[in-house]
Amino acid sequence: MAIMTDERWPEAAEVARLAQDTVPGVTAADVRPIGEGGDHASWWVGPDHVARCALDRGGSERLRREVALRELIGDRVGVPVPVSVANGEWARGRAFTLDTRLGGVSAELRAVTAAGEAELARLLVLLAEVPVASAEALGVPPEAPRNMPGLLRRATAAAESVAARGEFASDLLPRLHVPGRRAPPHPARWCTTTSRESICSSPRTAGSAACWTGRTR
């Protein structure tokens, strides 16, 4: 039995009509489907814009909330975020936004660089500083406080695993104070392991349990 759905995908000509007030002269030939993304149809509109059309009522609600949140955080996060230059409904009860196009390539197509990871980390830190009441006023569902001791234990275990592979500065680990977890007797330092000995930046920890083993040279 076929499953009925209220989803309907817009045509390129419809997207072009939505963008005409903002991008004069745009035609269906200037509109190309992106083919990646979440619960919306995404289109390139000329060289400088992206149109995103929600496909159902739930997606419309999330898209409207996203546009409002981007306006809230735009001046706070210190990294570029898309700006909605036009928004409304492309069909009854179906939201759309026409956004400015950012440079770069999707992480689905190319690995994130170290600079990109640093930018993402900065974005997440600054997002955490957005007042909760301001986000809730825009319809963001509230969440109960997280179990911080449990979260820190999982974060520490993950950091130790990454440090053992030589992909993390292990001298940062003592900063994670986990309740119920005994700290190492000396500050941990990064070391590498040869076939004969451990080489550490601190001779006090060389060969001890506090010496984090890294890549084999």
UniProtKB/TrEMBL annotation:
<dbReference type="InterPro" id="IPR011009">
    <property type="entry name" value="Kinase-like_dom_sf"/>
</dbReference>
<dbReference type="Pfam" id="PF01636">
    <property type="entry name" value="APH"/>
</dbReference>
<dbReference type="InterPro" id="IPR002575">
    <property type="entry name" value="Aminoglycoside_PTrfase"/>
</dbReference>
<protein>
    <recommendedName>
        <fullName>Aminoglycoside phosphotransferase domain-containing protein</fullName>
    </recommendedName>
</protein>
<feature type="domain" description="Aminoglycoside phosphotransferase">
    <location>
        <begin position="30"/>
        <end position="166"/>
    </location>
</feature>
